[in-house]
Amino acid sequence: EDVGKGGYDHYMLKEIYEQPTALRQTIRGRIDTLNDDVILDSFPPGSFDEVTSVQFVACGTSYHAAVYAAGLLNESGVPAQAYLANEYGVSEPPIPENALVVGVSQSGETADTLEALRYADAVGARTLVVTNVVGSTAARECTDAMYIRAGPEIGVAATKTFTSQVASLALLGERLIRDVTGTPSRFSAELLDSLSRLPSDVQQTLDDSTADELAELFDGSDAYFFIGRGLGYPVALEGALKFKEISYEHAEGFAAGELKHGPLALVTPDTPVFAVFTGQHTEKMLNNVKEVQSRGAPVIAVVGDESEEVHRVADEVLTFPEAPAYASGIMANVQLQLVAYHAARRLGRPIDKPRNLAKSVTVE
Ligand code: G6P
């Protein structure tokens, strides 16, 4: 088993460090930077001409990737909504005519996600799965499949597959935007350029990370909170999920704007708050930071390395190379993966196999 870990103490750490390679595989041959174009062999231009809206269904980490993707599409005028597959499956919402239902599932075997996709299929919707596993049940059953090409992931806590899912969904999203609206997204050139730089930017994020020291600094806290806005919101949710899954500590992710509607009651000097900055909504995020600081909570900003004002206001920072919001969220998430990992390692948790959790949940 140690051979498979390639010198790392855990599969999770190995997979965190594999992200630049996984990303290279995900985007290989799919971006034409010269012509500012997306090349998806299974989805040539016009593949989604009849689509008018998108519904995502997913669970766990994949749901957070779906929230991210829905945000990207909505920003470009394609109506999109992310649903937890287990809720979708029980509430069976109406599916608008010409809606595309996109399942996001690393394994392609999650029972809740399969159930949601089967419901969509039964009512006549076109279905597509974004998955890591060729030949998985979802890939066989859906009308279409897109593969994230991240390579096998052994650690129960998903890391590199989240990153590759988000990158894949951005590429698929760009194709959808072009087909549905008739024009490239307004951030198309920037998005494709930042995607092609992402493998090296993520490498730099990993190389420069001080997440280990930071985990030590806040060891023994009462709880750990994560806040974000826009594309930073799913990153906050994912940061908290990773942290609770493997450290067994209380961790929650909130939309930063929701703090004042309840979560602020939990904030004390013993609840560090990780604030995800993507370059969008910075002023509002800074107000939220001040809100929690005035209750005594230390704030760790996860932020681009050139954002001086944020660096000045935050108590601690975890940085990544300056990039557009879309790529910033991915790099912020890499930092939060490392924080969760080091916190769990300090506590001596069985990181690759957390109690009560399974890599793939094939029961409802
Ligand atoms: C389980 C795993 C999670 C994963 C979720 C969805 O709960 O522990 O890491 O995000 O299933 O899995 P999927 O294979 O559908 O992405």
Structural commentary:
- The chain is of the alpha/beta class and 364 residues long.
- It has helices spanning 11-17, 19-27, 60-75, 85-91, 111-122, 137-141, 160-181, 188-208, 211-217, 232-247, 282-293, 308-313, 325-346, and strands at residues 31-32, 37-38, 53-58, 80-84, 99-105, 126-131, 144-147, 224-228, 251-255, 273-276, 299-304, 316-320.
- Helix 12 links the parallel strand 11 and strand 12 (316-320).
- The radius of gyration is 20 Å and the shape is globular.
- It starts with 10 loop residues before the first helix and ends in an 18-residue tail after the last helix.
- The mean pLDDT is 96.
- It binds 6-O-phosphono-alpha-D-glucopyranose.
- 6-O-phosphono-alpha-D-glucopyranose binds at residues 59-62, 105-107, 110, 113, 156, 158, 357-361.
